[in-house]
Write a structure and sequence with these properties.
Oligomer: single chain
Distance between the termini: 24 Å
Number of strands: 5
Number of domains: 1
Strand order of the largest sheet: 1-5-2-3-4
Largest sheet: 5 strands, antiparallel
Strand content: 25-35%
Number of helices: 1
Shape: globular
Order of helices and strands: EEEEHE
Radius of gyration: 14 Å
Length: 78
């Protein structure tokens, strides 16, 4: 697996692992994606956690500082 990278280098078109140091401890590392809010009249883009660990306000208050790619799934040994 890769090392943590600065969030500024994160791809915005795939799900990734986010590190949010200011979030509650159990929410600091989570899968997430960029939400550009392209269809909103007044977009306020942010990094979201799709499994709704927190809500939009929480995602905005605790933005990630680092990211890494999702790991590859295990291979079937059969």
């Amino acid at each position: 697996m890769s090392d943590w990278q600065p969030i500024e280098t994160a791809p915005k078109d795939i799900h990734i692992i986010l590190f949010r140091p200011n979030a509650p401890k159990w929410q600091q590392v989570a899968e997430g994606k960029w939400d550009g809010q392209e269809h909103h009249k007044f977009p306020r883009p942010y990094w979201s956690c799709p499994w709704r660990i927190s809500y939009i306000e929480g995602d905005r208050k605790n933005p990630p500082t680092h990211w890494m790619p999702l790991p590859k799934p295990p291979q079937d040994d059969k």
